[in-house]
Structures are given as C-alpha cells and as structure tokens.
Amino acid sequence: MEKKIFKEAKKEFNLISSNFRFNYKVNFLLGEIALEQNEFEIALLHFNSIEKLSEDLYDFKKSTVINNIGLCYLHIGKFDDAERYLFKGVELQEIEKDSLMLIRSYMNIANLYYTQYKDIQAIPYFEKAYGLSKKVKSFDLKRMTAKNMAVVEENRKNFPLALTYRKEYEAWKDSLNDQNKVWAIADLEKKFAIKQKQKEVNVLAAENKAKIAERNGFLISSVLLFVLLGTGVYFYRQKIRSNKIILAQKNELDELNATKDKLFSIVSHDLRSSVNALKVSNSKLLDNLESKNYTELDVLLHKNSSIASGAYNLLDNLLNWALLQTQQGYFYRESLHLTSIVQHVEYNYKPLMLNKNIDFKSNVSASDYVFADLDSLKIIIRNFLDNAIKFSKENGTISIYSRSASEDFCYLVIEDTGLGMNEATRKELLKETILLSKKQNDDIIGTGLGMQLCKSLIRKNEGKLDIESEENVGTRVIIALPKFKNHG
C-alpha cells in the first residue's frame, strides 16, 4: 500500500478473515485505498463500517474516519451529508489540536462551499487554512493554502493581492523540503563560488598581462626621458593595484574554502560521533534488554534521545544556514507578541531541562511586541536556549526575561548558570565572520554554526546581539529586537 501498488494491496487485505481482532484496521486501510483511487462509494462502505466503533476500545483516530466520510460525500455530490461530517471532523480535530489535519479539513469545507458557488461561506475557511498554515512546517500545506488564497483574490478581482499570494505560492513551491539536499547544495555552492572567483582571477591576470605589454610598447616607442619615466610610474602603479586586487580576491577565495572545509569537517565529525555514540548505546540497550536491567535501559534511552536531539538540531541549523546563504528562505516581518513566541519555544525544551534537573524561570513582559520574522525569531531563541541547556550543569538555573525596553528596541535575555566563557572567547563569538568549534566535553556538539546563523538572522531582522559571561559562573545572552510601535 505504501508503494502505491493498490491492486496487490487490496488482494492481500481481502485475504484477512473478517473475524480477525484488528479487522477494523483492514476496513480503514481499504477505505483509504478506495479514496485514493476515486472509488468513493466503496470507500464510504468501509468507513461507515467502523464509524460507530469506540476509540476507547480501538486504537484509531475517529476524527480521520469522520473527515474521510465527509470527503466521500463531497465527491459524490451529497453536500448536506458532507457538510455535517466535515464539521464534526473539525470539532474532533480541534480537541485533538491536530493542526495539519485541521488545515486540510478547512480546505475541504471551503471546497464544499465553492463547489456550490457559496463563495461567501467558502472564503473564511480558505483564510482559516491559510492562517493556520503559518504555524506549521509543512511546505506542501503552506503552498496549497497560498494558492487557494490567490484563486480567491483573483475571483474577487483583487489582482495585486492575488499576485502577492501567487508569489508566496511559488516561493513555497521552490523551497527546500528535503534536508538530504543540503549537502549537495552546499557542495554546488562551494564549487560555483570557486569557479566564479577563478574566472575573476583569470580576467584580472589577463588584464594585467595586457597592461604590461602596453607599458613595454610605450617604453620602446618613447624617446623622451620624461615620457619614459612617467609611463613607467603609471604602469607600475597599475601593476601594484592589479596585484592588490588579485591578492585580495585570492585571500577571499582562500577564506571561503577554509570556512566551507572547516564546516564540512566539523559537521561530518559531529554527525559521525553522534551516530557512533548511538551504535554503542544501542548495543548496550540490547544487552540490558536481555538482562532486563530496566534502570540502565531508562538511562540509555534518555542518552539516545539527547544524542538524537543534538544531531537533529545540527542538521536543522545546517538547513536554515543553507537557505539563508542561497536566499531561498521565506522572510516576512510582522508584529509578534514576544512572550507568546518564547512560551511556544520553551515548551519543546522543558523535557530536556527536567532530565538535567534544571530550574527554569520565565518572566517576559506581556506588553512587548517586536517587529520581526516569526520563523527566524524562533530559530534564534531555540538555538540560544539549546546552548544554555547544553552548557548548564546538573541542578543549574536558566532564566528568560525582559530588560527595560528603549524607544526603539525590546530586550530579551537568556541567562544560565553554566560553564560560561572567558573574555577572549566572548569577543570571538561576537565577531562578524567567526565560525568556531566550541566543545567543553565529548557530550556537547558545537560547530559554531548555530551562533553564525543567529547573528545573521538577528542582523537581517535589524536587531543587535550582546553576550555577558564569566567562566564557571554563567552566561547572559541579550537579544535586542526592533519594537513594533504601532501596536494598539
């Protein structure tokens, strides 16, 4: 079924006895196959057979079944039944807080009304789907909702706004949604940059040779000492200038190569270390599983989770860095409620803090609104909070709070009582072009890529960054973001 070989899938499913304990799952999967093949009447029979089953007795999402029934009724033209089931599905999905399914359900309801030429009822659901898509990471859903809004505005004859949605649709369509492509893109970017710089060096070298030949021609043809001297001085200066340009281009190319090589070296080393650590840990897991040593199993599982989380964050930073470097990421600055964004990010890190018994305190002013891009602000806060956890000791403290805002900026502070750093390291971290590998021990993955990414995103949001730190005392990261002044 997963390989879309539906004929063989149906044949295998139909061999299962109707008395099988999990036969409701068979009906659900056969219904999904029929839905995929546009056999809506058949799909309806399968879904109806499990609609009345209780979720307490059977492990399936009732909201999905209800939504699929509504979808079948929509396609066979029974609009009243479709409306009833689609709305019932939405109610269940809102309880389950299933954002991805909610977006699809809102679009299904909108299409239901659109099919019946009830545009006034359809448009609010297209807008709901579009608004909710801003909060999920699915490029496909972002693309679909933007396209729907473009069609809505075209039908309204609001062509400038329709064009905006069309551009957003194209941006999501072209976005990188496969992290495996990051390596290939980075390698192509490196080769392209080298090729371009080499072309520039060759052009400058050719120009330099031509000017030398021109100077020699003047020297041979000149009969006056003054002309000879003047021409010699002129071409000498030109040569020095050309050599300086060539040297500057060469240094820039060397720096680019060194940065790329160092990045690949560090990332590949850290990923290899993480995978190797997982291999060793998994081997221990199997040994402890055989001996039923559940205490050690719990410790190893938490360690595996920490290793996987670190590797995932490294890949996520690498993807965002590649998108930033190639200018393919979606960037839109708007009014953002700072404390809501912080709460959303900190929620995902509370289990990690509990594992290290870290005391967490949050006191961000509810009145602070900043003018920034939502996704990049989350990346910034996530990276600094992740660093605070990584470099904090057991039973440490992490605090996130607001400093007094100025007329132009809101100040967000992330403070920890961890390892800290010396003054030289602090100054290096704040340099514009630095890319460090900061490791205190083998359990901490650090390429400096997250810091480089955060500095670039803060700069792109027209903000500022400062760091206060003392070794073995802790670190305080201060992020200054432009204040949204027109918020009522």
Task: Provide a concise account of the structure shown.
The protein has a five-stranded mixed β-sheet. The chain has a two-stranded antiparallel sheet with strand order 1-3. The protein is 67% helix and 9% strand. The protein is built from 16 helices and seven strands.
Write a structural description.
There is one protein chain. The protein is of the alpha+beta class and 488 residues long. It is 67% helix and 9% strand. It folds into 3 domains: 6-174, Tetratricopeptide repeat domain (Serine Threonine Protein Phosphatase 5, Tetratricopeptide repeat); 181-271; 330-482, Histidine kinase-like ATPase, C-terminal domain (Heat Shock Protein 90), CATH 3.30.565. The strands form 2 sheets. A 5-stranded mixed sheet has the order 2-4-5-7-6. It has a two-stranded antiparallel ribbon with strand order 1-3. Strand 4 and strand 5 form a beta hairpin. Helix 14 (374-390) packs antiparallel against helix 16. The chain crosses the membrane at residues 218-236. This is histidine kinase.
CATH architecture of the largest domain: Alpha Horseshoe
State the end-to-end CA separation.
53 Å
Provide the low-confidence segments as ranges: 176-180, 437-445
CATH fold annotation of the largest domain: Serine Threonine Protein Phosphatase 5, Tetratricopeptide repeat
Considering DSSP H and I runs of 4 or more, what fraction of the residues is helical? Answer: 55-70%
Number of domains: 3
Number of strands: 7
Order of helices and strands: HHHHHHHHHHHHEHEEHEEHHEE
CATH superfamily of the largest domain: Tetratricopeptide repeat domain
What global shape is seen?
Answer: extended
Strand arrangement in the largest pleated sheet: 2-4-5-7-6
How much strand?
5-15%
CATH class category label of the largest domain: Mainly Alpha
Mean pLDDT: 80
Number of helices: 16
Radius of gyration: 30 Å
Largest sheet: 5 strands, mixed
Main structural class: alpha+beta
